[in-house]
Design brief:
alpha+beta
Length: about 325
């Protein structure tokens, strides 16, 4: 068929339009294909990361299934690359808490030696260690952290053989062998000089009490008990510090637990087989070491341990860096 000039021009225009449509369709197709490839790529990355975190997810689910209110989400969030809102910068305990010192009411106080002590009846001093929640008693000026396991829940004799020497006591052996063997991350524990000096009746003020406790130091154990002075220092009542062995006003967050302290009584014949304990909600008292009493294991975390999350409350305790 022979085309005239008009027909040829029309055909040229038609072919041009069709060519343009084809080019546009190809571009759209390539764009869709690229989007599909990109979606597939990111989906693959997400799936890969989710699979990578299966172990962390299972561990977290098992924790929640056990009914625990203190499941650590840090590892799971970190694996997913998600930042937990409660996460703080990794920092030493003393560096985190020194800015929380108060001058009145319940909270964290600094003593004359630069140590930080939780005082009052309601304080946020909960810390996660060895798979459970402990409570911070004191942060020493060098950064060591004294923590107490108030959930231990055992009533034991200070010594089964009526000895008032802590070094050879059955309770010392129980804590540094049986109990120590149950702890996780025990490389975080610092060996310290425990103040195991005997308490004599002439101790009246807090300073005198600390002086008597400090007369004998014991450095061969990693686990111990609270000192009698820990109960006194935790109270906000001034009369408690001025009459340490008679005051019934030494109320604090510690007084709801009570239990043996690491300090025995005097060496007189009448007192030779007695050690001190804190009567719940009452005061420091003493009784025979062969009697049963609540036990609160205590240890020191190294000054280098760091906090990565938490605010110190029971529902959100301070979490240690792993």
């Amino acid at each position: 068929m022979k085309l005239n000039n008009k027909g040829f021009a029309f055909s040229t225009m038609l072919y041009g339009a069709l060519s343009l449509i084809i080019v546009v369709l190809l571009l759209v197709f390539n764009l869709l294909k690229n989007n599909t490839d990109e979606t597939y790529y990111y989906s693959s990355i997400i799936e890969e990361n989710l699979n990578k975190c299966v172990e962390e997810e299972i561990a977290l689910e098992n924790c929640y299934s056990s009914g625990s209110a203190n499941c650590d989400t840090t590892s799971y969030y970190a694996c997913l690359g998600i930042k937990n809102d409660s996460v703080v910068e990794s920092v030493r305990v003393i560096d985190l808490l020194k800015d929380k010192v108060v001058s009145s009411g319940n909270g964290l106080y600094e003593d004359s030696d630069g140590n930080l002590i939780f005082r009052g009846t309601t304080v946020n001093n909960y810390i996660q260690y060895s798979g459970d929640v402990w409570r911070i008693v004191e942060i020493e000026v060098n950064g060591s952290v004294k923590i107490a396991y108030t959930k231990y829940g055992k009533s034991l004799k200070w010594d089964v053989d009526d000895s008032s020497e802590w070094k050879v006591s059955s309770l010392n052996n129980e804590l540094n062998n049986t109990f120590y063997a149950t702890l996780q991350n025990n490389t975080l524990i610092e060996q310290k000089n425990w103040r195991i000096g005997r308490i004599y009746d002439e101790a009246s003020t807090l300073d005198e009490l600390i002086f008597q406790e400090s007369q004998v130091l014991y450095s061969n154990s990693l686990i111990g008990l609270l000192n009698a002075s820990d109960y006194v220092k935790a109270s906000l009542d001034a009369s408690c510090k001025n009459d340490v062995l008679n005051s019934t006003s030494c109320t604090s967050w510690l007084s709801s637990y009570g239990g043996w302290v690491i300090n025995a009584s005097s060496t007189s014949e009448e007192e030779s087989a007695k050690a001190y304990y804190f009567k719940i909600g009452d005061k420091l008292s003493k009784k025979n070491v062969s009697d049963n009493e609540n036990v609160i294991p205590v240890l020191y975390l190294k000054s280098t341990v760091r906090i990565v999350s938490g605010d110190g409350t029971l529902s959100n305790p301070y979490m240690l860096e792993r």
